[in-house]
Specification:
two-stranded antiparallel sheet
Length: 205
């Protein structure tokens, strides 16, 4: 048997209150379907909860049926459906308020920005980096000194950080090499990119 959404406004009539009830019922039903797709267990929980409540308040002697334009439907089934629609409609109204979501689907205010690093703080360069010549560098930092290792080749290096500048010394295929670089940091003092004077660029992974 196929139900049509156009059936509900027709049955509710044309009065102001009935049209409001029709809109609430249709919106709640759409919310139920949307929630069932994303969290199928939630409607089941509501139905079971409503059945438990009805089982307490309605004795078995009230297992009657009420006539519907389609067919006879058990009373508890109708009340279950009404409970489900009302509860899910209420949840649909509460969720945007409690989560801060607005009508465009965007989250509410993310909160205050993180505080800036104190003056003179050493940028944090420790971590994994990718280079523009297809290497991966792992940096260990201790204060304003650091060491690095390369995952693809044996290129050990070390250096010193001075403000947002740093120097580096490493060995590659028996050659002792060096470079100086500039550190780009974010608002909390974490390095996001290092640009070296030899054209190499480190980008944080």
């Amino acid at each position: 048997m196929v139900w049509s959404f156009q059936y509900f406004p027709t049955r509710f009539g044309d009065s102001f209150i009935e049209r409001i009830m029709s809109d609430v019922f249709t919106s709640s039903l759409i919310f139920i379907l949307d929630t069932a797709l994303t969290f199928p267990a939630f409607p089941v929980i509501i139905i079971l909860s409503s059945r438990a409540i009805l089982g307490y308040f309605l004795p078995t002697t009230m297992e009657k049926t009420c006539m519907c334009p389609v067919k006879a439907i058990p009373l508890k089934l109708i009340v279950n459906a009404v409970c489900l629609v009302l509860v899910m409609g209420a949840v649909g109204c509460v969720i945007p308020v409690t989560t801060g979501d607005n009508a465009n689907g965007n989250a509410g205010n993310p909160g205050p920005p993180p505080p800036p690093p104190p003056p003179g703080a050493v940028p944090m360069i420790a971590g994994a980096w990718s280079t523009n010549n297809s290497l991966t560098i792992d940096i260990l930092q201790n204060g304003n000194t650091y060491t690095w290792t390369c995952r693809e080749r044996p290129i050990p290096g070390h250096g010193t950080i001075t403000g947002t500048n740093l120097d580096a010394y490493w060995t590659d295929m028996g050659q002792h090499l060096s470079a100086v670089g500039n550190i780009q940091v974010n608002a909390i003092g974490v390095a996001t990119q290092i640009n070296w004077n030899n054209g190499i660029v480190f980008t944080r992974i």
